[in-house]
């Protein structure tokens, strides 16, 4: 379950705005001449990027790359020049190039031809990008500690092998993820056992979407005690079984702490040559201690 909110791009990304402009950077001609490019024939190429076609030029957070269109011996396009920040200005020899700009995981590429005569018009690349900010709660409104929570971002489309393409993994909550416009499949993991929620979230150009995923899970503390409310007994091995009888978690600890999805479970404690067990229920958002009483 998710809730989402879109905002104007330059309110949502206001922390990314600034006035940084990169200095001019020289690039080599794509003919790989051994001589340095002549200052008399190189042309100034100004580049800027926008989140949307009608948006303002971005002033921060961009990565610019200029490539030769001729693959190298490794089959890759050689990188000729780069810049970081906002708008950029390159000195390029006449010829053909590929210009790429990226903003986080969002990007755009354009073919550029630098003529021998005349000036080069300012090149504007439209990223058609936005962002998502992810968080999660347990139950209706119990905030989940950031250290217990992570998100993986996948493409919405299922590939031929039945899997989705991984876009970004191990995203922490309250982190802005910049992506091209489209729908993405989000996998949220609370803890490391079985509390997993999936959701499809749409990224809109020029907007930041805040999504809160609702987990039906809770944190459970297991204790083997000699009396109710007593100290946990050390050297205890634990197994937790789902209602199906499958083992979902194991631990060797006096006081194991784990997150479990809502449902019915059985805790089994092994201490020395004795075994103790107890059935318990996990309710969303209700963190509890589950005590097993040591019997003589």
UniProtKB/TrEMBL annotation:
Residues 24-43 are annotated as: Disordered. Residues 28-43 have a biased composition (Polar residues). It comes from the Bacteria. This is DUF4382 domain-containing protein. It comes from Ciceribacter sichuanensis. The lineage of its organism: Bacteria, Pseudomonadati, Pseudomonadota, Alphaproteobacteria, Hyphomicrobiales.
């Amino acid at each position: 379950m998710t809730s989402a909110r879109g905002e104007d791009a330059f309110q949502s990304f206001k922390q990314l705005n600034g006035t940084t402009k990169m200095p001019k950077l020289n690039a080599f001609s794509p003919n790989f001449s051994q001589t340095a490019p002549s200052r008399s024939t190189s042309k100034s190429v100004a580049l800027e990027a926008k989140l949307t076609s009608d948006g303002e030029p971005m002033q921060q957070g961009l990565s610019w790359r200029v490539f030769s269109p001729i693959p190298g011996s490794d089959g890759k396009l050689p990188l000729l020049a780069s810049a970081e920040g906002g708008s950029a200005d390159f000195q390029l020899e006449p010829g053909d190039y590929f210009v790429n700009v990226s903003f986080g995981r969002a990007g755009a590429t354009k073919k550029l031809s630098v003529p021998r005569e005349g000036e080069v018009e300012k090149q504007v690349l439209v990223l058609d990008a936005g962002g998502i900010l992810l968080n999660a709660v347990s139950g209706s409104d119990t905030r989940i500690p950031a250290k217990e929570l992570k998100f993986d971002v996948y493409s919405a489309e299922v590939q031929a092998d039945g899997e989705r393409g991984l876009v970004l993994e191990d995203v922490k909550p309250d982190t802005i993820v910049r992506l091209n416009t489209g729908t993405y499949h989000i996998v949220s993991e609370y803890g490391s056992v079985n509390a997993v929620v999936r959701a499809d979230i749409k990224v809109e150009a020029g907007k930041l979407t805040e999504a809160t995923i609702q987990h039906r899970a809770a944190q459970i503390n297991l204790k083997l005690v000699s009396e109710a409310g007593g100290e946990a007994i050390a050297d205890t091995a634990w197994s937790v079984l789902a209602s199906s009888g499958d083992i979902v978690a194991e631990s060797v600890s006096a006081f194991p702490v784990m997150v479990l999805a809502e449902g019915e479970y059985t805790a089994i404690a092994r201490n020395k040559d004795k075994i103790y067990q107890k059935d318990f229920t996990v309710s969303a958002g209700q963190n509890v201690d589950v005590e097993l009483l040591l019997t003589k």
